[in-house]
Amino acid sequence: MKRFLGKKIFRLFIIAYFTVAMIEIVAEYFNDKTLVTLFKPILIPLLIGYYFYNSRKRNFLFIVALVFSWIANIFFINDTINYIILGSVFFLIYRVIIIYLVIRMVKMPSKLPLLIGAIPFLFIYATTCFLTFEDFGENIFLFIIHGIFIIFLGGYSLGSYIVYSSKTNLILFLSTMLFALSQFVFVLKIYSEYVYFLHALAMLQFVVAQYLLTKFMHLKEKPKSKYEFANTINEL
């Protein structure tokens, strides 16, 4: 009975998460600051609730990472440069924690898959830096630091999928790719007249990426079948 109620609760959390996400995305599209202020801070707490009720082995460090992401999103509500920089710092801490967790949970047999996997992410960030170097000014260095971490995580996730094409590795790769693309789309608004559409698109990518990352954590924490365990041993 308790387990049944737990499943019901985590389904309610994920339904609420995507419902709030849809409202937030529409609010971004219509530039409705009131709705953004009301609904954006609710997203991550709902995701934490989903993870908490959906996971048997709750990783406290992952929850801490989500809290840093939540704080970053609150700062990002305000468009002023100081708040954006503060939000970027908190999001950088979030990303460092996630990289640490991924390295612990996903083993890379050699550096070659990492280097191959990093190529598309390097291209995305190199292009973005080239387009926005003058517009970012001194803040370009913070963006470059973010880029280094996402290139590493992207290379690691894609490299892991190349070595072992599992569902969990695919979900991790898709999540990382969406995070990278969301930043690329967000930067494109500098050169586009469809600013609010790009805001909404970046938010959609962010919402799905966060969910997929949480799904990855849940799947990695589940007990492995004998077949999966045997494959893991062979890889090592």
Task: Outline the secondary-structure elements.
Blueprint: H1 2-29, H2 33-54, H3 60-76, H4 81-105, H5 112-136, H6 140-163, H7 167-188, H8 195-221, H9 226-235
Q: Would you write up a description of this structure?
A:
The chain is mostly helical. It contains nine helices and no strands. The chain has helices at 2-29, 33-54, 60-76, 81-105, 112-136, 140-163, 167-188, 195-221, 226-235.
Structural features:
236 residues, 85% helix
Rounded average pLDDT: 85
> What is the count of β-strands?
0
Low-confidence stretches: 226-236
Count of DSSP-assigned helices: 9
The computed structural class is: mainly alpha
Major pleated sheet = none
- Report the portion of residues in β strands: under 5%
Radius of gyration equals: 18 Å
Task: Please estimate the helix content.
Answer: over 70%
- The geometry reads as globular
Distance between the termini: 40 Å
In quaternary terms, these chains amount to: single chain
SSE order, one letter for each helix or strand: HHHHHHHHH
